[in-house]
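Changelog entry

Holo records now carry the ligand SMILES as an explicit input line rather than a separate metadata file. Below, a converted record for flavin-adenine dinucleotide, shown in the new format.
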Amino acid sequence: MKNKAIVVGSGIVGLATARSLAVRGWEVTVFDRSPEPVGASVRNFGMVWPVGQPTGPLLERALLSRSLWIELLSAAGAWFEETGSLLVLRQPEELRVAEDFVARNRNFRSCALLTPKKALQKAPALKAEGLLGAIWSPTEVIVDPRQAVPALMTWLQEKVLVQFRLGQAVTEVGSGYVKTGGNRMEADLVVVCSGQDFETLFPEEFRKASITRCKLQMLRTEPQPAGWRLGTALCAGLTLTHYASYADCDGLAELKKYYQEHVPDYVRWGIHVMASQMGSGELTLGDSHEYGPGPDPFDKQFINQLILNYLYAFCDFPKRDIRETWHGIYAKMTDGRTEYVSEPEPGVWIINGLGGAGMTLSLGLTEEWAGAL
Ligand SMILES: Cc1cc2nc3c(=O)[nH]c(=O)nc-3n(C[C@H](O)[C@H](O)[C@H](O)COP(=O)(O)OP(=O)(O)OC[C@H]3O[C@@H](n4cnc5c(N)ncnc54)[C@H](O)[C@@H]3O)c2cc1C
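Structure line, unchanged by the conversion:
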């Protein structure tokens, strides 16, 4: 008889957990309150982004996730692209941080500082004017979250026999069981991967944890003309202040001061600008960061405009028309930790709080966790 596991939540954290358990021989059932994926995992850029992770265990985890994404999406026949990424440099202060990042990482990861000419060859969408160079990293992979999450669910169902109970909210969890309304289901292991829902299950645990919500605004263009490809995922200087991989670089404090003085609105709304292209030709653009327990439900047009203004200062596309705007919310640790993993009751685990790196780290994190069970 196989051991039974129940996973609550079918976002990327829940799906990664289900995969890691099922491939180890567990009989897994996944519950989600929603009949279709609607959480952060289908609202994101789809950037599997190892370059943002600091050298060491987190980079290793990101690279493991990357190889699992490629393996899973190849097996599922779903689109992905190994684009790599360019971080575009337009200020001397940005160049200084970038030079130090590349020098520090020389022996630990493949990345390079490109001249403007080489950067333009990699990404013809870039504007030459004001371009000082770019950090090239070959490790980034783009998935289309709206296809990748359902494809992963199908793979889990068909290849490792995970069962899905969608449209069923789990209302109570304890050692050895979950309840969905009046129904009770027994299991040897329960894993709660409830994303930004801190109130339904284990509210006391979440209240004690240093965890909050973060709201991000996003946009998608109409498909670019047939055959036009961005080539590589793009981001620019503001991104240097966003990811932990740049945190120790020389010149970062001066760069933050420069942004505070010259682009205070971008700092105030946590905006750093990234662009990825989907298989369908659309460009996904974003984003902003508003932190707090109760993010307001309304999107701010001026934030979208700030994102577009910054984007079109460093690159351009044949089709600028915006097809969709939306926001997503993720759970983020406020104490510097990169995830929240705890066992509040014997055999009941919570895995949450991966912040803006859930697509990059989940598949690797749950491999480490399940391997240590
Ligand atoms: C706009 C945006 C852009 C991002 N871009 C990137 C990126 O490019 N790269 C990257 O690595 N990361 C990115 N992230 C972060 C990443 O998307 C998140 O870290 C990740 O999706 C979180 O996954 P999750 O499974 O915890 O949450 P979710 O995807 O929100 O899933 C949680 C699920 O749990 C279900 N649930 C909750 N409570 C219950 C219950 N009681 N019963 C049943 N079901 C329940 C919900 O219905 C939901 O489906 C981005 C996030 C956002 C919002």
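Spot-checked after migration. The chain is about 35% helix and 25% strand. The mean pLDDT is 97.
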